[in-house]
Specification:
Helix content is 39%, strand content 16%. The protein is an alpha/beta fold. The strands form five sheets. The chain has a three-stranded parallel beta sheet with strand order 1-2-3. A hairpin with a 2-residue loop joins strand 5 and strand 6. The chain binds glutamic acid. Glutamic acid (GLU) binds next to loops. Glutamic acid binds next to loops.
Length: 276
Amino acid sequence: MSVTRFAPSPSGLLHLGHALAAHVAWEAAQSDGGTFLLRIEDIDVTRCKPEYETMLKEDLRWLGFTWPEPVRRQTEHLGAYAAALERLKERGLVYPCFCTRAMLQRELAGVLNAPHGPEGPLYPGTCRSLSAGEREDRLDAGEAPSWRLDTGHAAKEAGPLTWRDRNHGSFTAAPELLGDVILARKGIATSYHLSVVVDDAAQGVTLVTRGEDLLPCTHIHRLLQALLCLPVPGWAHHRLMLDDEGRRLAKRHDALSLRALREAGRTPGGIRAMIQ
Ligand code: GLU
């Protein structure tokens, strides 16, 4: 029996892409008598709003989805993420990074052929080589760092890892694809990557369904699961809903929000037909 989850961020209106993601998670749970969970990924406190959470639940109920309450809301579990980060700190697998976005842009502008990942240039590793003394001085001086995974070192510690996707087959984990990702942002001591692996384990998720755009992240998640001794789920990365120009649906497509479609007279069955 699978435990699946749909994990939207309440930072805008749900659109057809979300309906597809929820549908895939729901169907996977239904197919073997499992459980579909809703999780609210609200760590980006500048963009997430309670009214979007209210609206997304209304939209999902309208489409016929049900889920156990209470739902897990990430901002209510910051202690769990901090504890996971602490374990990585103790083992020297993360390091504080003092770079700002502007500093990184300047640094990367001067580099020819900087290595790129799926989301742009990889972090060049500037703060990885700071000495222990320098780190301490800057922390003592009150500089607020983000914390990055020392991915090369961590991958060596963990040894070779594999993971399996229902739609794409077996993979050897290649966390270096994303480089030294941020595990804890300045200001909020966690990140998408860290929260997701902690939550999936805490909620007993056995099958992670999500869009193919997040496939590269799974290499990092698999590594974090190994480092934190968490159970390893299965994965099913699914196709994305695209607009007429082949672009992934996003917040800019408000005309395709479930709310706008409902107001324009579409029914839940009509929405299901649109995502087939
Ligand atoms: N909050 C993420 C999103 O909206 C979910 C990613 C995941 O399922 O791991 O894309």
